[in-house]
Design brief:
Catalytic activity: ATP + protein L-histidine = ADP + protein N-phospho-L-histidine
Enzyme class: transferase
Radius of gyration: 20 Å
Low-confidence stretches: 229-236
Largest sheet: 5 strands, mixed
Bound molecules: adenosine-5'-diphosphate, magnesium ion
GO molecular function, one term: phosphorelay sensor kinase activity
Number of helices: 7
Structural class: alpha+beta
Distance between the termini: 21 Å
Protein name: histidine kinase
Mean pLDDT: 87
EC number: 2.7.13.3
């Protein structure tokens, strides 16, 4: 049945995720263990080993931190929040970091009463993930534009447009798979988590990208109030 199919799909995603987690965390642990053994032999620079071990442990912390977002209880606190205010807050937060890298963020917000029913921190996390990805795609600097529109009476569209490196077609379908990253220090979790949060909010997203031109991410979020029936099954 449809339900069984969904269930087995969920299980395979869980299995995939578990394998990914095991792999991602075993690597830094193996490395720390190796350096501890080296230190026991008294060989080499202790200071240097300590530094590497600390950065390996930092990496584990970052990965676990992101995974904990996924593990959050299904029933989160949904409240009316002004999407424009949330965007402005995140832009202010990341703007200074952008300036340091010659990145400017322009905004086009012209929506009356842009209220969405959401868990504020989760939605902010989504905005941060997308803007950070755009910033990381523009090492030479450039512009990120963010648009907020109402496309239907009860639907907002938030668009993130960058002038970054873009995504080659052959890896487009891998974006959002757990731990898929093209970055040396990436976790490959941001996209997947963002998509999940958006879907938990009854929304959807699209990704379009062209190598050397840039990337466009569209997020659609409903403005409707929470449906209690959905809440109790944790299935929003
Ligand atoms: P991470 O940022 O840790 O690599 P994400 O899940 O956020 O993990 O992104 C996965 C991959 O998607 C990135 O490594 C990058 O290759 C690609 N990507 C995401 N957003 C963009 C973007 N705006 N421009 C170019 N590539 C992107
Ligand atoms: Mg990212």
């Amino acid at each position: 049945s449809q339900e069984m199919l969904q269930q087995s799909e969920k299980l395979s995603v869980a299995g995939q995720l578990a394998a990914g987690i095991a792999h991602e965390i075993r690597n830094p642990i193996t490395s720390v263990k190796g350096f501890l053994q080296l230190m026991q032999t008294g060989y080499g620079e202790k200071e240097e080993y300590m530094e590497i071990m600390t950065s390996e442990i930092d990496r584990i912390e970052i990965i676990l931190g992101e995974l904990l977002i996924l593990a959050k209880p299904q029933i989160t606190k949904y409240e009316q929040a002004n999407a424009q205010k949330l965007l402005e807050h995140v832009v202010a937060l990341l703007g200074t970091q952008g300036n340091l890298h010659n990145i400017s963020i322009s905004t086009d917000f012209e929506v009356e009463h842009p209220y969405i029913d959401c868990d504020e921190n989760q939605i902010k996390q989504v905005f941060i993930n997308f803007i950070k990805n755009s910033m990381e795609a523009m090492p030479q600097g450039g512009e990120i534009s963010i648009e907020l529109q109402r496309i239907e009476e009860r639907m907002l569209r938030i668009c993130f447009i960058d002038q970054g490196c873009g995504i080659p077609e052959e890896i487009l379908e891998k974006i959002g798979q757990p731990f898929f990253t093209t970055k040396e220090n990436g976790t490959g979790l941001g996209f997947m988590i963002s998509k999940k949060i958006i879907e938990d909010h009854g929304g959807s997203m699209t990704l379009k990208s062209k190598v050397d031109e840039g990337t466009v991410i569209e997020v659609f979020l409903p403005t409707e109030p929470v449906n209690e029936a959905h809440l109790t099954t944790g299935k929003r």
